Amino acid sequence: MSASKNQAVALLSRMLKAPPLKALSLFTSSSGQDLHHTHQSVSVIIYHLLSFDMVLHAQSLILQLLSDKITSPLFTVSSLLSYLTHNSKYFNSSLVYETIISAYAKAQLPMEPVLFLFDEMVDKGLMPTSNIFNSVLKCVVKGNGFEQAWLVFEKNKGRVGFDAYTFGILMKGCCDSGDLRRAFDVLGEMRETDLSPNVVVYTTLIDGCCKKGEVEKAKKLFSQMGEMGLVANQYTYTALINGFFKKGLKNDGFELYEKMKSEGSLPDLHTYNCVLNAYCNDREMHKAFQLFDEMRERGVACNVVTYNILIEGLCLQRKVKEANKLVDEMKKCGLSPSIITYNMLMDGYCHAGRLDLALKLFDQLKSSGLSPSVITYNILISGCSRSENSLQVLDFVREMEERGLSPSKVTYTILINFFVKWNNMEKALEVLSYMKRTNLEADVCTYGVLINGWCNQGNMKEASKLFKTMGETKVEPNDVVYNTMVYGYCREGSSYKALKMLREMVEKGLMPNVASYNMTIQILWGDEKWEVARNLLASMIKSGLEPSSTLPILCTKQDPSIS
Predict the structure, then answer these.
(1) CA distances from residue 233 to 200, 285, 370 in whole angstroms, order as listed
(2) Measured between alpha carbons, how far is 364 from 378 in angstroms, rounded to an integer?
(3) Which of 130, 215, 384, 426 is the most exposed place for a label (fewest CB within 10 A)?
(4) Three-state SS for 157?
(5) 160 φ, ψ (degrees, to nearest 5)
(6) Which residues pair with 157 in a beta bridge?
(7) What pLDDT digit, counting tens, does each position of 416-452 carry?
C-alpha cells in the first residue's frame, strides 16, 4: 500500500507540471493500473482543471467517481467530496461546490447529499448562481416530488437569487401536481420580485388550467399575455385549443385555431393532432383527411398518434376496412402500429360483428412482438360476449390471468353483463362478489348492468336494493341508471315510483330520455292520473323532446270522470 502511495505522490508532481488535458490523461491512464488514488491526487487534478476553466472536464471526472468507475481503497466518495470542499481555501470555493453539485444533478442520484452541500455552501457565505439553484430545484422536483421542491424554494428565499427560470420550474411542478392555487401564488410572487412572467411561464399555467378543466382561467391568462405585449407561440395556442375541445367548446377551439394561423403562428404536430381529434370525434372525417393532407403538404411529419386518431375516427363509423388501409400506409411511412392501433382495429371489427377478423388481428399483434394489454383482452372478451361465444369468453379470461394481467373493473363489468344477457343473475352476482374481494369497487357502469338485469326480469325489489346500495357507497347514478329504473317501474305498473324516479332525475340535472317520458305518461293515464300525465307531457315538450304520436291524442281526451 505504501508503494502505491509513493506512486500517487510521484503522479501528483507530474500532473502539476503538465497542462490540464495532459494531466487529466495521466490521471485516467493511471486509474486502470495498480495505482491507488488518494484524496490529494484526485483533488489536485480537479483543482488543476478548474483553474483553467475546464469545468465540464472536472464535472465528468466527478461523475466517474460518483458512478464508481474510479475507485480507491484510500477514500470513499463522501470523504473525497468533504476533502474537496474543506481544502479549497486557496482556490475558488464557490466553483468547487458548484462543480460537485452540477455533477450530482447530472448523475440523477438521491438529492440529500446535494442539498447538504448546497446548504453548506450558502452557510459559508458563498453565493451560488441562480443556474446552480435551478439545477438543484429541478432535480428535487424530479426525484423527491414537488412538495420537497417547494420547501427548498421557501427555505432559500432571501438566501439566493432567483430568476425567471426558477419560477418556470416551480410553475411546472405546481401544474404537474395539479396544484393550481399554488401555481397562481408562484405567478404572484414572480411579479413581486419585479420579474416579468415570460411566454413559457404563462404557457405552462394555461396548460395546467386546461388540464384541470379551468378553461375560463386559461382564457384570462391568454388575454393577460396580449395586454403585456407577450406573443403567444404554437405551444400556448395548442394548450388552449386542446383545453377548449376537452371542455366541449368546439367553436372556441376552431376559432382560436384560425386566429393562430392568421397571427402567423404555424401549427405543429401537436396542434394538428388536437384539431384532427376534434374532427374525428365529430365524425367529420372529410375535414379530418383534408387537414391530414395539409400536414403532409407542409412537411409536418405524422406520428403514430396522428394515424391512431384517424383510425379511431374511421372505426367509430364502422369503416374498419378503410382504417386497415391506413395501417398499411402507416407502415409504408416507417411507423409501427402500437398496441393502441391494434386495440382500436379489433374493437372496430368486434362492433362490426367480425369477431373472426378481430381474432386474426390478435394473432398478428402477438407475432409482431407486442404484448396484449388488459384493454386488449377487455375488447376481445366483450366481442365474444356479443357473439354469445361463452367458451371463448372464459378462455380469454384464463389466458389473461396466465399472462399475469389482473382483470380490471371494466373486465368484471363485461363479464357481469355477459351473465346478465344469459339471464344468469346468480353468476353475475358471483362475479361482483369476486370483484369486491380483489379490492375493486363497483362503479356506475357495473351497477347499471346489474340493475338492467333485474329490471328485465321484472324483479324491482332487487333492482331498488342495488339502487339504494349505490347511494350508500357514494356512487352517483347517471341518466342510464335512472332511465332503467323508470323502465322497470313502468313495466311493473308502478306509476308513483316511476314518476318519483323521473322527478328525482330532473332535480339532479339529468335528462330523462323519450322512452322514460312516454312510458311514464302512458302508465299515469292508465292509472287515471290524467292531470299529472298532461303536466308531464308539457314538461317533456318544454325540454325539447318529441313525444310519441299517440301521447298528444291521449292527453287531449276528456277525463272519463267528466263526461
Answers:
(1) 9, 28, 37
(2) 17
(3) 426
(4) strand
(5) -130, 160
(6) 160
(7) 999 999 999 999 999 999 999 999 999 999 999 999 9
